[in-house]
Amino acid sequence: MSVIGFIGSVFSPWYAWSGRGDPTNHCCINVATYGKGGRFAMTDRGTTALRRSPDQFTVGPSSMTWKDDHLVIDINEISSLPLISRMRGKITVTPSAITQTELPLTPDGAHVWRPFAPIARIYVDLEANGWQFDGHGYFDSNFGTRPLESDFKTWTWARYPTATGATCFYDAVRHDGTTLETAIGFTPDGAARHVKAPAPTPFKRTLWALRRDTRADPHTTPRQIKSMLDAPFYSRSVVETQLDGQTVQGVHEALDLNRYANPLLKPMLAVRVPRRAKWTF
Is the pTM value of this prediction over 0.70? Predict the structure, then answer.
């Protein structure tokens, strides 16, 4: 499953149509569960729904709260089509350590990736049959002062648990013709270092024919194990690849910002991303 908190909801058509002048008026906590009975909630909410403090981030009925050494996410959302129903419960993310790492994604620092906890445990307790489990967890943030499609053509990101911790890959093609090619290895104590990475290797396109690649040892081909989210401009999936002779499985994302910039996509997104401008606590 995945949970993303937005101030200035990057993929909200309502935020794009507004001119992106007030990010606080387009916030949300996006929740997606995958597998049998999986659902998706991404409600674009107005300024009155947003509350922030040093330890808590609240958007309408849902919140993220830092308590001691763990993050508690309380969910109370309504999923969008095709399975309209309530998504309610609690998720706890416990990092093995907090890193001190930040990665500028553009030379001027207009976009920054902050991997707070690349290695964590996640405990899920949702009010639905079969949605109580624990496993690998991950916690990061992205910050930006310009629309993604203004600076990037495409990007891919992946996080693979390894025998010694986790490895993250961030690869992007910018509009100015430059590229970002970053591989960072993380250890359970929060240490981070750049690591040598094998070449990007293409693998099967998505149902929307979105091109994908990830790092893989020579003479090996990555493969999708599970589709998580498949949109015309975005893919999230569980991918298996081989790194330094080790077979690993992790979450992979691919994003085509040229496709996302197409205005014809925005009405399609509005079906999955409803707007609720008013909220009273």
Answer: yes
pLDDT in tens, the chain (281 residues): 999 999 999 999 999 999 999 999 999 999 999 988 889 999 999 999 999 999 999 999 999 999 999 999 999 999 998 888 999 999 999 999 999 999 999 999 999 999 999 999 999 999 988 899 999 999 999 999 999 999 999 999 999 999 999 999 999 999 999 999 999 999 999 999 999 999 999 999 999 999 999 999 999 999 999 999 999 999 999 999 999 999 999 999 999 999 999 999 999 999 999 999 999 99
Please spell the DSSP secondary structure of 165-226, one letter per residue: EEEEEEEEEETTS-EEEEEEEE-TTS-EEE---PPEEEE---TT---EEEE--TT---EEEE
Q: In the chain, what are the domain boundaries?
A: 2-276
